[in-house]
């Protein structure tokens, strides 16, 4: 449970199969009040040069990369959402927040 002064609503979407649901978080108000953080993209030639320094390579599917990024206490409070069960916060980066992709990119580059 959360005591955050921030709150965003949930929108329930029924999937195409007519049975399953998807929970969507409406962060439009939060995003309108959030200042965009700018992160430089790594240069591909630098990344390729770094490949020369390793013995083994690993390929990962980053489709759920957001779930790897932990949230700061401040960001957790801003991510708060309300349900009929109460007010909750994310521990990991959710989809939909304005600055969600840049920290994910900076983590990949680091």
From TrEMBL:
Looking up Pfam families in the UniProt record yields: RVT_1 (PF00078)
Q: Which CDD domains match?
A: RT_LTR (cd01647)
Per the record, the domain of life is Eukaryota
Q: Locate the Reverse transcriptase domain: which residues?
A: 14-101
Q: Which SUPFAM superfamilies does the UniProt entry name for this protein?
A: DNA/RNA polymerases
Question: PANTHER family attached here?
Answer: POL PROTEIN, RIBONUCLEASE H
Q: What is this protein called?
A: Reverse transcriptase domain-containing protein
Natural source organism: Phytophthora fragariae
